[in-house]
Specification:
With 75 residues, the chain is mostly helical. The chain is built from 4 helices and no strands. The protein is globular.
Length: 75
C-alpha cells in the first residue's frame, strides 16, 4: 500500500470530514470528527488493508497520517 492509498483509506474511516481535507501531513487527532470509535476503525483498516497490527499506543504516538503509515509499515 502506498502513502496515497493509505491517506485515501484513512479518510474513508471519517464520516463527516471531507476526503480532500486529508493529506500525508494532516494532524488527524485535531480533526473534529476524531473519536475513539474512529481510532478503532483506523486500527481495523490497517489490519485489513496492510495486514499489520497497530495499537492505541501507536495512534497516540503518531501525529500525522504519514507518521501512522510509517509506523504501521515498520511492524
Amino acid at each position: 500500500m502506498t502513502l496515497d492509498e493509505f491517506v485515501k483509506a484513512f479518510a474513508a474511516e471519517f464520516e463527516e470530514t471531507p476526503e480532500d481535507q486529508f493529506k500525508a501531513d494532516t494532524e488527524f487527532k485535531t480533526l473534529e470528527d476524531w473519536s475513539s470509535l474512529t481510532a478503532l476503525s483506523i486500527i481495523a483498516m490497517v489490519d485489513e488493508n496492510m495486514d499489520k497490527t497497530i495499537t492505541g499506543a501507536d495512534l497516540r504516538a503518531s501525529k500525522t497520517v504519514e507518521d501512522l503509515f510509517n509506523l504501521a509499515n515498520s511492524k
